[in-house]
Write the structure tokens for this entry.
Amino acid sequence: MKRTFFKQQVILSIFAAAGLVFLLSSFRKNDPKPLLDDLKGTINISGAFALYPITVKWAQEFKKVHPNVVFNISAGGAGKGITDALSGLVDIGLASRDINPEEVKKGAYTIYVTKDAVVPTFNAGNPNAAALLAKGVKRDQFQQIFVTGSIKNWNQVGGKVSVPIHIYTRSDAAGAAETWAKYFNKKQEDLLGVGVYGDPGLMQAVKKDVTAIGYNNLAYLYDLKTRKQVAGVRALPIDVNANGKIDANENFYETIDELTEAIATGKYPSPPARNLGFLFKGRPNRPELVAFVKFVLTEGQKYVEENGYISLSKQKIAEELKKVN
């Protein structure tokens, strides 16, 4: 009897051990962590200043899951990023403007990843600041400043003090400049002003000149910690309905959160609101590139709003994911 009982215990122990091995084996098969560490490669990225900050954030978060993927990221303007991608110098060009037919012929393949906007700016020390913030500037007035040059003084757009307008624009091939020009159905080369390189450079130029007018991407106009506009520069409100004043539903520039909500709901015009995208030469197929794009369009979207961008809609995300699936 004791021997029979002992045999039963041994058999039960064997079955229990076998079950444990099976469970551990199943767990290992379903556990994604070993696979995540297998992803390797280098991803080279260049382009739009507008997309640069959030792309750096996405890369940092992606590397927490895939530490063996190396990123080289630089900002140099959308034009440079697109050219670099189409010539094979980088894997991803950061694009903050529409892609033209010639670029499509060369293999340009764009996957949109977020939204932002270009915002007109002026120096906070302008003696007409209070009037400008209350009245705003109409689209046709902006055009007469930046394109035709027929408006040359701040008193021509509601200012009470006669002060000349000093215009600053981008010297590099920039998505911000192209998008701002598109607001007037023009191209970057049609914009007047002193050319300044890069988004940070344009911001500093406006900050140093009390009579200045310029334009910037959201990420450079607002302090992401305070959520308010950076010191010395203010958004120049657009009088969207052209009634000569900034109404309550046009007054959304105080914080970046108010402005991004206005962009998302269509209160802020498009252009200068726009989609931002990753541009490839042909459909991406390298595992690390595909994994990074999918991460950006899924997990990565939770970092978008806190960094001053606008999340894509669920429908838009689904459309963009199809481009890599």
